[in-house]
Amino acid sequence: MTAQPPYLELLEAVDSFPHIDISKTPYNPRVNLAFYQLLLPNDPRPHGYIHSSIVQKLKWSAAFQVSHNSPRTVQLLDDSHGEDTAAICSRAFYEVLEKAVEDKLFPFLKTMQWENYRIVGARYPTVQILRSAARLFGICSRGAHMTAYVRTNEGMKIWVGRRAAHLFTYPGKLDTTVAGGVKAEESPFECIVHEAAEEASIPADFVRANVKACGAITYVAKSSDAYGDGSDLMTPVILYNYDIELPEHIVPRPQDDEVEDFYLWDLEQVKKAMINRQFKTNCAAVMIDFFIRHGILTDENEQDYLEIVTRLHRKLPVATSASAP
Amino acid sequence: MTAQPPYLELLEAVDSFPHIDISKTPYNPRVNLAFYQLLLPNDPRPHGYIHSSIVQKLKWSAAFQVSHNSPRTVQLLDDSHGEDTAAICSRAFYEVLEKAVEDKLFPFLKTMQWENYRIVGARYPTVQILRSAARLFGICSRGAHMTAYVRTNEGMKIWVGRRAAHLFTYPGKLDTTVAGGVKAEESPFECIVHEAAEEASIPADFVRANVKACGAITYVAKSSDAYGDGSDLMTPVILYNYDIELPEHIVPRPQDDEVEDFYLWDLEQVKKAMINRQFKTNCAAVMIDFFIRHGILTDENEQDYLEIVTRLHRKLPVATSASAP
C-alpha cells in the first residue's frame, strides 16, 4: 500500500496566503502587506484587496475615489442616478482595465477579449470584471470541479485528466476530471455541464441528470509565479465541487485541446500521484475534499484530519453573500 | 413545496460564540471576554479557554500554575520526570474536579462517575478529562453523528429520531438518526458503531461494513442556558459526520431510553421541521451539512451558500492536531 500523501502540505501549497486578518492588518508599504480595500457603491464590505503597487500603476478614472488614509480604499462611486448600477460598475472596471491593456502594464493582461467573472457577494448583481483582473484586484475567483468515479470489482476508481503540454499554466500536470472558471453570467452547475461536454465529451444530458453538487472549498492564494510578477498579490478562491458516478461504458475523452488524456486510476495510483506532486495544486485540494467525503481520508488514518477539514473551508476576507451584513 | 429553511440562522444558533480571535482578545473582566488560556506541559498552544469566574471558583492544586499576567494562563506543570505524562495530567484534572464535585461548585457537576473526553490535539495522548468539565475549561468536545437515509421510489427519505421527553437537554426535540459523544479511549468510527446498536438497534456488523465517514463540522458554542448558569462560557465542538444508506428492511428502533421514536421523512418534512426549529440545534447543523453533501442545498437555491459552507467549518481556537505548530 502506498504511504499516506502529505495532505496538509499539499493544502498549504494552495492556501498559500498568510492566515492574517487582512481587514485589520495595518498598512505597511515596506512589507508585502500593503493592500487597499476595494469597495463597491453603497456597501462598506470589501470585495477585494488591491496591492499598493497595483493601485499606483493603474490609471483610475473619475468613477473611482482612491483614499490613502487608513483604511486605504479604492471606492467605486455611484454614478448611476437610480439607473443600472451593476452595468455602470462593470463599465468602470472595463475602462480602467482597457487602459491597462493599451499601456501594456501587466504581462498577463494582453486583451479584453476574454471571459468575465462576477464580483461575488455584490449587492448589484451582476457586476462583471475581466477574469484575468480578479487577481489584480484580489477579487474572489469562482471555479467548478467535477470528479468522475467508477465502482469496479476492484474498488473505486477515479478519472484523472492530464493537462496538455502546451498550456501556459501547469502544463502536463494532473487535473480534476472536469474543471472550469465560472463565468459571470452562469451558475456553477451550468459551468460544469458545459465543461463536461467540452473538455471530456461527457453528454450534457447525462451530467444534468446524474451530477451531484457536494459542497465547496475555499482558500486564499498568493499569486502564482507562473506569471513572472505579482507574487505579493492575493486571490480568494471558491471551488464548487461536484461528483458523478460513471457507468463503465461512459468514458471521458479529450475534446478540446486542453486535456491530453484521461486515466482511470485506483486510489493507490491517485495517492501516489499526490505524493509525487503531479497534480495541479488546487486539483490536489479538490481530491482531498473528495477523499474526505468518501471516507478515504478519516480521523482514524490522518492525524491532521481536523486541520485539513477546516483549512479546506477558509473564511474568505471578502463578502461572499449579497445579504450578509 | 415547503419554503427554504433559514439555514444561516439555524447555524448562528449553534455557532453562537462571537467570531473574535480569542487568543488576541485583551483580558477584560468587565465584559464577558475574560478568559485564561489552558496550557498543557511543554506546549505553548492553548487547549482550552477558562472563564475568569471558573478560574476563581476552582481550587487549583500545586499541579497547576495560575498566572494573572497577560496572557492569563492556567499552566499544567510537568511533574512526570519522564514517566507517563498523560496519566499525570489526567490525574491532576481529576483531582481538581473531584474537589469541585465535593464542594458542589457547579450544578451540572454532580459526580465523577461519567465518561471522559480526551483533550484534542494534546501532545501526550491520551490526556483525559471528565466530559461535563469540557465546557468548564473550554476544551474541545467531540461528537459523532450518523444520518441514515433510504432511496425510495418517491425520492430520498431520512431517518429522524425524536429525543425522549425525560432527557435533561433538548427533551422532545428531533435528533440525528444516531449520535453520541466520542469517549476518550475510542475513535469517532467506534463511537458511531456502538451508538448505532445502542440507540437505534442497527446491527454493528452492518454499520461497520456500510457506514461512510464524510467529514466533520466545527463550531464554537456559548454554553447552553439549559444548565442555568455559565452562559459566558465557550465550547469548541467537533462533530464527525457519517452517512449510511439503509435498505428498506433495516428499520431503526429505539433501544435505550434516550430515543422516543424514529420517523422516515422525505426532504420536505425534514425542511419543515427545520423551519419550525424542531431539531436540537446542533443536529440542524449536521442536517445542513448532509444537505450540502447530497446536492439538496446548493449555490443555485441558497444565496448564503458560501457563508454556510465556511461557517460549518470554523477554525477552532484550540489545538486540534498533536503535530501542528
Automatic annotation (TrEMBL), chains A, B:
One of its GO terms (molecular function) is 8-oxo-dGDP phosphatase activity. InterPro entries: NUDIX_hydrolase-like_dom_sf, NUDIX_hydrolase_dom. Transmembrane segments: none annotated. Residues 141-289 form the Nudix hydrolase domain. It holds the Pfam family NUDIX. PROSITE patterns: NUDIX. It comes from the Eukaryota. This is Nudix hydrolase domain-containing protein.
